Amino acid sequence: MALLEIRNVVKQFDDFTAVNNVSLSVEAGEFFTLLGPSGCGKTTLLRMLAGFEQPDSGQILLDGKDMSQVPPEKRPVHTVFQNYALFPHMTVRENVAFPLKMAGWAKDKIDAQVDELLEDVRLTRFGKRYPHEMSGGQRQRVAIARALVDRPRLLLLDEPLSALDAKLREEMQLELINLQKEVGITFVYVTHDQGEALALSHRIAVMSNGQVEQLDIPENIYGNPKNRFVADFIGQCNVLEGTVKAVDGDTMTVDIKGCGEVKTLAVAGAAVGKPGWLALRPEKIKLDKELPDLPDEAYFKGRIHDCLYLGDVTIYIVEVADGVLIETMLPNNIPGVAKFFDDNDEVEVAWRFDAGRFLFE
Ligand code: ATP
């Protein structure tokens, strides 16, 4: 049995449907992420798990038990918010101990449990400090320790790292991964940051317009997007308009608009004449002044349209036909060479037939 089961959940605000018939389940011990752009309904879904909102229809089951009649404070669920929500007049230790005190635990048991949690979040030395004496990352660790101290079945995290700067956010991502492994508690994490979702999660549900577009492990969400929305939203992706020309077993030929025919993997629902898009990640594309024209590769000539130097890599945008741009990426891994091409250089691009995915929706 799944730890959490969401069945056909719908939530409307007046005549606007914020969550539209979502069904999914989360296994015990999973780090599960709801990912999507602003307004897609992920926070509303999380709030229903916490009990702050009630679904209009559908069911939420935790350990097989329907939660509809269980108020937030009675659910074995805690939430960590973006803004920490610590008690400013209490020390770190008092903040973390608070839920146990409210539950009437004995002092020695509270002390032992708080010690353990402070160690888990690497704040053992900070117990006597007040929240205003801590950095943003440290405060968020206190908030997480407090939310975990009475061992909930489920920890909900609503964009908990979005108030931190990029470097600290990366550090905290590593800490969260390790902490979740250590405590073994199921995390449901909400973010609009696709990099964060890919880095942290065992599985991701990508949402838009109140619905789940794709639910899968990060490698499949990135490498095998189900539709154009997921391909576009997750990482950089070239999306080239085309039409199916021929289907032959595991492969098919598609005509990329303005560019010509290429071989690609056959996909379910393919039929000659059907329009769609070839989704292709920049790092899957070879780029050079000259490339061999190999049978298993699609191959186009083009011209450098733009170069974006990013330090570790440079992004080269190549115009392969009038108005058709393909983004490519090369690592800057040769000492002393910061850039391989310049605007207007004539180049060639190529990719293996199985590097892209043809999408019909
Ligand atoms: P964000 O990342 O910006 O928080 P989100 O994906 O979490 O976005 P939600 O907060 O779930 O999105 O909101 C989904 C939609 O429902 C939005 O259009 C929002 O305006 C609307 N909404 C949310 N709560 C309410 C409410 N209490 N009353 C009316 N509309 C609401």
UniProtKB/TrEMBL annotation:
Gene Ontology terms for molecular function: ABC-type putrescine transporter activity; ATP binding; ATP hydrolysis activity
EC number, as in UniProt: 7.6.2.11
Coiled coil: none
ABC transporter domain residues: 4-234
Entry keyword set: ATP-binding, Cell membrane, Membrane, Nucleotide-binding, Translocase, Transport
Domain of life, source organism: Bacteria
SUPFAM superfamilies: MOP-like, P-loop containing nucleoside triphosphate hydrolases
Sequence similarity: Belongs to the ABC transporter superfamily. Spermidine/putrescine importer (TC 3.A.1.11.1) family.
Protein name as it appears in the record: Spermidine/putrescine import ATP-binding protein PotA
Organism: Craterilacuibacter sinensis
Native organism taxonomy: Bacteria, Pseudomonadati, Pseudomonadota, Betaproteobacteria, Neisseriales
Name of encoding gene: potA
